[in-house]
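hey
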């Protein structure tokens, strides 16, 4: 994954849930291309985080949950967005998104997760529901077509392992892709 849309994992319970936060900053270039326009409010347009990138953050949170359930030995890919419903005001600079993913089902072929995203106002600390997102993941090495994928885990890269460690979740060296040698 080239871009990580999570800043910190605050809770990770194996096979149950993952909670992560994302702080949205004015410095993010993507905000300068996406604006909420509300002509009735009589104010200028404000930059917002695109909902597609909010879904990406939710998928990364749920993907970590899914991968962690099997000690990151599976290559986990997003297979389907079952539902993505957004409510409330758009997420803009200075706000924090809290992603919560709960494992609904997991087996050899993949998993299903149920997620929520909350918007946290930095001035008041108020927490507002922002999105409900249901996702399905595939364990691609278990695919029915027998397709072969590279041996190294190209999904859970150094960035994700670093995120886990920075968040206080040690990574077992035997499963850490940073210690497996060069990518094939």
């Amino acid at each position: 994954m080239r871009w990580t849309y999570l800043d910190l994992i605050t809770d990770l319970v194996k096979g149950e849930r993952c909670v992560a936060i994302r702080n949205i900053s004015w410095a993010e270039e993507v905000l300068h291309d996406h604006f909420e326009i509300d002509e009735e409010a009589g104010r200028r347009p404000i930059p917002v985080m695109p909902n597609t990138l909010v879904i990406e953050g939710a998928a990364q949170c749920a993907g970590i949950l899914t991968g962690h359930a099997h000690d990151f030995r599976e290559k986990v890919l997003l297979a389907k967005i079952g539902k993505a419903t957004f409510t409330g005001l758009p997420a803009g600079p200075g706000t924090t998104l809290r992603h919560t993913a709960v494992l609904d089902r997991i087996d050899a072929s993949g998993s299903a997760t149920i997620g929520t995203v909350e918007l946290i106002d930095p001035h008041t600390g108020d927490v507002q529901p922002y999105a409900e997102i249901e996702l399905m993941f595939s364990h691609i090495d278990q695919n029915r077509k027998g397709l072969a994928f590279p041996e190294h885990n190209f999904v859970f890269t150094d960035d994700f392992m670093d995120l886990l460690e920075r968040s206080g979740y040690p990574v077992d060296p035997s499963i850490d892709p940073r210690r497996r040698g060069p990518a094939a």
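The chain has one domain: 8-176. The two ends are 16 Å apart (CA to CA).
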